[in-house]
Design brief:
144 residues, alpha+beta
């Protein structure tokens, strides 16, 4: 039987873990901040899509196409304000081509979101997010 050898720690590698950790920490922090920025961008996308949904539902209850466009614009702006979404540019398009009982109304909300406000990274530029929703108009409603 062979004699057992005792493991003797190598003193030359003693500080290498601390040096590696010191070099990797800023990279790990940047990676975490980029993940947070991506999550906040997805959240902004969901909020814009929800604003389009609320605007289309509000437009579908109006008696005329002109009232529907006004209601959609007002509701989309209010929904984005409630969710604290700040847009550099905001476009709200209401499509009322099939605005009749049994028809539908479609609202598209497009928002230019600044990337600088997403995290501490101060990313340059902006990203366009948009959402579209189509709401049916009640078939049994009365004509104006």
């Amino acid at each position: 039987m062979l004699p057992r050898r005792r493991a003797v720690p190598d003193l030359r590698d003693r500080g290498s873990v601390a040096a590696e950790l010191t070099l990797l920490t800023p990279l790990l922090i940047c990676l975490v901040l980029l993940i947070v920025a991506a999550g906040r961008l997805v959240s902004a996308q969901q909020k814009v899509t929800d604003a389009a949904h609320q605007a289309a539902r509000a437009a579908s209850t109006q008696p005329t196409p002109a009232n529907a466009e006004h209601a959609a614009t007002s509701e989309a702006r209010a929904a984005l304000d409630r969710e604290a979404v700040s847009c550099r540019q905001l476009a709200i398009a209401t499509h009322t081509g099939q605005f009749h009982p049994g028809g539908q109304v479609t609202v598209t909300v497009t928002c230019q979101v600044s990337l600088a406000q997403l995290t501490l990274l101060q990313l340059p530029g902006s990203r366009q997010v948009s959402g579209t929703f189509t709401a049916p108009i009640d078939q049994w409603r009365s004509q104006p």
